[in-house]
Amino acid sequence: MVGCALLVAGCASVDDSAPSASSRPISTANTDVTTASAAASNATDPIELPTTSTFEPSTTAPVAEQRLDPQLEQRLQAILDAAMPSMLTPEATLQAAVLVGSTDTSWSGAAGRDDDANRPFRMASVGKTFTAATTLRLVESGAFAIDDTIDGLLSAETLALLSGDGYRVSEITVEQLLVHTAGLFDYAFGEGSPMLQRYVLLGEIIERTTGKPYAAAMRELLGYDRLGLEQVWLEHGENAPPGAPTISRSFFTTTELTDLDFSIDAFGGGGLAGTGPDIARFFEALLGGEVFDDPSTLDLMLRIPATNMGLEEFGIPFGDGASGLYRIEIAGNTCWNHRGFLGTIALACPAADLTVVVTTNTATTEPLAIASDLVIAMSQQRAQLRTVPAARRTGPDGGAQAAGAAVNRRRGRRTPT
């Protein structure tokens, strides 16, 4: 058993001893992954899947490292400081990361109790974007189609639970799970909520298709190492990276959530931990066309059903819902974002070449307002970017964050239309 899906009735074990024909194990990392029963039968050979995109890094010299104009950095920090009184707990912490991808210009700041701008946070539902991208990597590999129905992709136990509750599993498609239109009751927040249920099922599909644990499959298929994501991991599926700071404490107003078991949010629908700069690198790469082999896969991810225009949840506007992303407009910029329950948001504005991540440790904080203020400030003062020698870099995190292994590749980046 590789993993399990949380349903209304609890946790359904995944019977990997009998995968269906359309959920053949996929070979990743050049290792064929098969099951005993599949090997004993006449099952089709495993699909060979590259572990990362075949996007080729540029061989040109890297662009000069840059930082923001000091006055702009001060303005961004002031936005964080001004947001602190609304966070309703004396233990509140706020962190933000800003990345201008084509120039590798970045800024990180923090405010509140913990001024470490590189502190990892629980990203909650921001992890859905990672799950959606992993699913679509499998789609572009030919493992299954986005309009395939789930009756050929999930375990018999999970299908029995769904069918037993009246769901027509032969009519629910992968895309309906991705865009939250499958009509499934959510075990955490009720019917119609886009919070968890559909992405828990996607997590099981990823495991059964790859023959690997969800965390490992996501890491390989999205190419964390290639993108330079050193501080991103699944809290309940992987060990924290060596030397990683302790994850930030979490609160709901003044009630501390730090020691709660977040397994409800650990599989497909969330559970991701990471730093603002690394989450920003991923969103910049994703919307810049560097995660998928085929540009049309990103177009598929950004496709919005007519039913998903102007979505709201708990009275909060979410935007127009695509696969693991929501479209919003900020200061004339089209931005793609996802929010998390614990006061987090990651958004990328491709035409503006701008990515912003805001992380807080207070679930009652609305991070979109803070992120919007940061986007507006950047939009108003982008002309003030200038090259500064590395020795002169300053700021709460020591200055501009290097893009790790991804420094060279952005010269050849693709931008979605």
Explained architecture:
The protein is 26% helix and 20% strand. It has eleven helices and 21 strands. It has helices at 36-40, 70-83, 127-141, 156-164, 174-178, 197-210, 214-222, 224-227, 276-287, 295-301, 367-381; strands at residues 4-7, 10-13, 26-27, 47-48, 66-67, 93-100, 105-112, 121-124, 185-186, 190-191, 232-234, 251-252, 255-256, 272-274, 311-313, 316-321, 326-330, 333-340, 344-349, 354-360, 386-387. An eight-stranded antiparallel sheet has the order 7-6-20-19-18-17-16-15, with helices on both faces. Strands 8-14-11 form a three-stranded antiparallel sheet, with helices on one face.
Helix content: 25-40%
Q: Largest beta sheet: what is the strand line-up?
A: 7-6-20-19-18-17-16-15
Task: Assign the CATH superfamily of the largest domain.
Answer: DD-peptidase/beta-lactamase superfamily
**Tertiary shape:** globular
The CATH architecture of the largest domain can be named as 3-Layer(aba) Sandwich
Number of domains: 2
The computed structural class is alpha+beta
Distance between the termini: 41 Å
**Tell me, what is the CATH class of the largest domain?**
Alpha Beta
Share of residues in strands: 15-25%
Gyration radius (Cα, Å) is 21 Å
Low-confidence stretches: 1-65, 190-194, 383-417
Number of DSSP strand runs: 21
Subunit arrangement of the protein = single chain
Average pLDDT across residues? 75
Number of helices: 11
Describe the sheet with the most strands.
8 strands, antiparallel
| CATH topological fold name of the largest domain | Beta-lactamase
